[in-house]
Amino acid sequence: MRISRRNFVAGAAAIGLARPSVGAAAHTAVQATIHSDRFDPWIEVDPSALRHNVGEIARLGGGRPILAVVKNNAYGLGFDAVGSVLDPMEEIAGFAVVKASAAITLRQVGVRKPILLMAMFAESDGPDLVTHEIQLSLCTDDAADRIRRLAASVGHPIAAHLYLDTGMSRMGMPYHRALPWMTTLASRDDLRIAGTFMAFTEETAFDHEQLDRFTAVTGEARRAGANLGQLHAASSNGVFHLPEARLDLVRPGIAIYGGYPSRPEEERAMATLRPAFRLRARVSRVQQLRPGDSVSYGRRYVADRPTWIATLPIGHSDGYPGQAVNRGRILIGDNLYPVIGSVSASHTIVEVGDERSVQVGDVATLVGPDHPDITPNTFADAVGVSVYDVMMHMNPGLPRVLL
Ligand SMILES: *Cc1c(COP(=O)(O)O)cnc(C)c1O
Fold first, then answer.
1. What is the per-residue pLDDT across 310-354, written as a single tens digit (0 to 9) for each?
2. pLDDT score of 60
3. Using CA atoms, how far apart are residues 208 and 244, in angstroms rounded to an integer?
4. Which of 36, 93, 122, 266 has the most Cβ atoms closer than 10 angstroms to its Cβ?
């Protein structure tokens, strides 16, 4: 295992960005290796899988540049690990996050490409964000005032994207009153509009309506002379299912990490995504139960015959979902073992069976590419959670190892 973090952070220092600032998110740096006598769970990140997935997305996206969504600690894989792999890639035009602290953290770990904050920014954070070359999103009626004050305080024009609401009703300027807002903003010389974007509801029929709204209002603004920068709308779902939404950039998240966004069966036929991480732990106890012995809180499992079980020191506080009991299986060696009893904060127990086929210290893979039943999508479906939750709930404090 090789570590690329040192070089990567040296890059950040060289451009004068490696300093603490606006509530940079707690995150765990990439480690070189996991010592074989340690029992803390960990996450392995596979750069070749990330690169492969980016290639697949680029192909599906007809070669459009990719604005990589790395929110929520890069979908659980880690800002540091993911940033170091994606930043140098030609297909990657930049990064997008939803928290100001995440934007700053990405710079601090060494990302050099453009970073878009797809959220409200606090005026008190504005100068720090701008100093770190974070592109802001504008979405409110007072956007021009906010830009005027910020540009005055930093002494140069501000780079930002216009965020339009075409039907999500979550963030953005509602499209039906966006036209004068856009043309006014586009006429300011203290603002450089780098892009204009929207988010889909991912309801198939309505997505087309949303795209029509976006295309109509941006078209009108452009005809009125507004420079709107690059248009972008498609998340992973759009990359797969809405070719007309590719626009100037595509903006996927989950597919980069190897998760199929909406309809895995159909999507597998369109692209081969590789899960780019493994959630792992080492067996910390192996024990034979006697008939009548029970397992864990609530005694939801009682042995009816002599049965071997194994304990893994990883639980729901690490991100392994409690719903996995009786539904999920865990790979140890070449075998899958069912999760029994209950998942506690820091422990999960599997039924090994009649033979003692598992030893203390064996490496278990809870989610990863190594067996079809434990890929993020199949695991999520089996246990009844969303594939987004499987990835994004992985505890940011777990050590990340870059393979
Ligand atoms: C999360 C997010 C994305 C990426 O979505 P995926 O489904 O993970 O591809 C794109 N755009 C916005 C605004 C988002 O919040």
1. 999 999 999 999 999 999 999 999 999 999 999 999 999 999 999
2. 98
3. 9
4. 93
| Tens of pLDDT, residues 236-279 | 999 999 999 999 999 999 999 999 999 999 999 999 999 999 99
CA distances (Å), origin 68, targets 72, 93, 285: 13, 8, 40
Angle between helices 179-186 and 204-223 (to 10 degrees): 50
**Residue 65, Cβ density class (10 Å: 0-12 exposed, 13-18 middle, ≥19 buried):** middle
**Which of 40, 109, 45 has the alpha carbon at shortest distance from 77?**
45
In angstroms, what is the span from residue 110 Cα to ligand 1's centroid? 22
Quote the crossing angle between the two packed helices 100-108 and 79-86, to the nearest 10°: 60
254 lines ligand 1 (CB under 6 A): yes
pLDDT at site 1: 37
Q: Which two tokens stand for residue 20?
A: 């603490």
Distance CA 403, CA 237 (A): 28
Radius of gyration of the CA atoms of the chain, in A: 23
**Residue spans of alpha helices (H) in 224-308:** 236-241, 264-270
Alpha carbon distance 61, 92 (integer Å): 12
Kindly state if the Cβ of 365 falls inside 6 Å of ligand 1.
Answer: no
Mutate which of 169, 251, 254, 257 for ligand 1? The one with the most ligand atoms within 8 Å of its CB, which is 251
**Sign of the alpha-carbon torsion through 288, 294, 300, 303:** positive
Q: How far is the CA of 387 from the centre of ligand 1 (A)?
A: 13
Instruction: Dig out the tokens for 52 from the structure.
Output: 């492969």
Residue 16 has pLDDT above 70, yes or no: no
Question: What percent of the chain is modeled with pLDDT above 90?
Answer: 91
Helix (H, G, I), strand (E, B) or coil at 177: helix
What are the distances in angstroms from CA 146 to CA 99, 187, 188, 322?
18, 15, 12, 44
The pLDDT tens digits for 4-15 are 444 444 444 434
Beta-bridge partners for 339: 350
